[in-house]
Specification:
alpha+beta; seven-stranded mixed sheet; three-stranded antiparallel sheet; 9 helices; 25 strands
């Protein structure tokens, strides 16, 4: 899937040699999800020919205001409307969040209450996520049809979604602690940020961030997979089953799932040594629905539902199982509780550990290792990763 990056601004020149420009940060944020990227520097009036140039679009941050008089802002707003009309998924971050709202009929103002800086907690429809903030401007009036998915006391409309067309957030999941230090050192004074507030925010830079959780949500939105936005919206179901799964039975490995071979439109979910459970798979424009027995909202299919958890397959991890002769995939799953919150499973714990590394400006090194075990009758070889 090709993601078009629309770049309306640049990182401070002093940090680019080490951290790269904003486009590099977005690509790092979404690395590992199977995306390809292309860039257009709209701040220099470089635009794509149209929405068809990419499968999905992301508009990033900028030191400019959406209400300022720049020659590139009107054509960017027109492109936003064209992308929405073309039904291509569109994501906005900070300035991107604001320009999408403005282009679709909302309103953005310089907030009289001042700045939001550094690690900041947001309520993502009942799930707290901590992300770095760097803004004074805010969306103050929503576009028609927009639904609030993130908020806090300082920023009422910190995240919005319009159906499955647009998703935008005010905070910066692409900013790590080192990038924030660069902004504090090289942008804060010229932007008029109070130095006392900068010092207070600088002292909080060691806090753990939920950038990986936000990246998961953005990637799932681009792929139009099921995403959990608790309390406000429930499950947002996927629209398109991955093409490589069409018409093939996927035997469960761990807890993988897929369409049944002999019953189109049905999905078979099972664990080894347990009975198969068959429920309807997602269909175009399908949505979650209340259970007749309980009145509670059922999650859409494409998910493995247990009594105490919900497993969501990360199809970017799908690989052929080498020990079977038929069509079988092994798929790593993300685990959530029944309220949509991350469980303390190894994969989620590792994501948080990696986030702590990123907060320090470090990148973990993952080294593969082969482990051999043997017995008089058999010899077994296993691969594992040492972190």
């Amino acid at each position: 899937m090709k993601i078009g990056l629309l770049i309306p601004g640049h990182a401070p020149e002093e940090v680019r040699a080490k951290l790269g420009d904003y486009a590099d940060m977005y690509e790092r944020l979404l690395a590992g999800y199977g995306f390809d990227f292309a860039r257009w520097s709209v701040v220099e009036n470089v635009f794509p020919a149209g929405p068809e140039e990419a499968d999905g679009w992301l508009i990033g941050g900028s030191r400019h205001g959406v209400y300022e008089d720049h020659a590139w802002i009107p054509p960017l707003e027109a492109l936003i409307r064209d992308i929405v009309a073309a039904d291509r998924p569109l994501v906005g971050i900070c300035f991107g969040h604001q320009i999408i709202a403005k282009a679709l009929g909302g309103r953005v103002e310089k907030y009289q209450g001042g700045w939001a800086l550094g690690p900041t907690e947001y309520d993502f429809s009942g799930t707290p996520l901590t992300l770095n903030a760097w803004h004074q401007d805010q969306v103050v009036a929503l576009p028609e049809g927009a639904e609030v998915i993130a908020t806090n006391d300082f920023c009422r409309y910190a995240g919005i979604r319009i159906g499955d067309k647009t998703l935008s957030v005010q905070p910066h999941p692409e900013y790590d602690a080192e990038m924030m230090r660069g902004l504090f050192d090289f942008r804060a004074e010229t932007a008029g940020v109070p130095m006392a507030q900068v010092d207070e925010a600088r002292a909080r830079l060691g806090q753990s961030l939920d950038a990986v959780a936000m990246a998961d949500r953005i990637a799932a939105f681009f792929k139009r997979e099921a995403v959990w936005w608790p309390r406000t919206t429930g499950w947002t179901s996927c629209r398109h089953r991955p093409r490589y799964l069409e018409g093939r039975r996927l035997d469960e490995v761990g807890a993988s799932c897929g369409p049944a071979r002999d019953r189109p439109g049905q999905g078979r979910y099972r664990r080894r040594n347990s009975p198969a459970r068959t429920i309807s798979t997602c269909q175009d424009r399908s949505s979650s629905r209340p259970s007749p027995a309980t009145g509670r909202t059922r999650p859409p299919t494409g998910l493995f539902v247990e009594r105490d958890m919900i497993l969501k397959p990360d199809m970017s991890t799908a690989t052929a199982a080498p020990w079977t002769a038929d069509w079988t995939l092994q798929v790593i799953h993300d685990a959530y509780d029944r309220n949509g919150r991350d469980r303390d499973e190894p994969r989620n714990v590792l994501k948080r550990v990696v986030g702590l590394y990123e907060a320090q400006g470090w990148r973990p090194v993952i080294a593969p290792e082969m482990e051999f075990t043997s017995s008089p009758a058999t010899s077994t070889r296993r691969a594992r990763s040492r972190r």
